[in-house]
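A quick aside before the break. I want you to see a complete sequence-to-structure record at least once, exactly as it would be stored in a machine-readable document. Don't worry about memorizing anything.
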Amino acid sequence: MADFKIKSAAGTGNKTLIQGQDQSGSSSAIEIGDGGNLAFGNNGKLFHGMTVFDTAGTHTWTKPAGVTAIMTYVTGSGGGGGGGGSTNDTGGGGSAGGTAIKWITSGLDATEAVVVGAAGTGSTGSNNGGAGNLSSFGTSGEAPYSTASGGAGGNHGDLGASVREGGVGSGGTLNLRGSSAGGGTDSGGANEPGGCGGASYWGGGGTPAGHSSYAGAAGAHGGGGGAGCNAHGSSQGTNGGAGLVVVYEYKG
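That is the input. The structure line, written in tokens, reads:
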């Protein structure tokens, strides 16, 4: 268990700063600020806030006053589910976007560009789902600090149980690949479901169309879309989830 000491913090207002080190020697802190708000430390820095970008397109992150470091989570968008194909076929689900996690302590500009990848679109019939798209955070010279590619779209039912790869993070302190999706079937029978969408770092894989009237559900937060089912259900695969960029901000 960490040893902590309590002392008064600098600044106005009624504040208490609790600091200490864990057994590895890493420093940590909790600030109880005005109104009893808690701020949890990371490498000796105090948590300031969190900014979430979850709408496809280009955005701007503005560095809050006093922020000296950030932790970014960049997730590409999910691929769309494949179409059901021919009679009694089921498509494959869309694969998930990758994720890059990066701790940034220097070089931050007052504003940084944020790109959230648009979701891959689900397809119908003998058509593959659309691929997911790249998400990114900021610029370092001419290149973003980190990027994450989108997941592949699912195959249509005539291609059988083949699956497609998930996207992958790049440039992060930790780079993760999104999950591959469930495959479909070629003439598998009227009761076969389509393939589930792959899950991203945040989960969110879409569910496939059922063999009756269930039309499936779209992916979320970079998850892949569910596949179509050309039996008694919907031949339409669902869309993947748009990408996601989350920025945790720290002071000190």
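Two observations worth writing down. DSSP finds no helices and 16 strands in the chain. Residues 25 and 32 are 23 Å apart (CA to CA). We'll return to this after the break.
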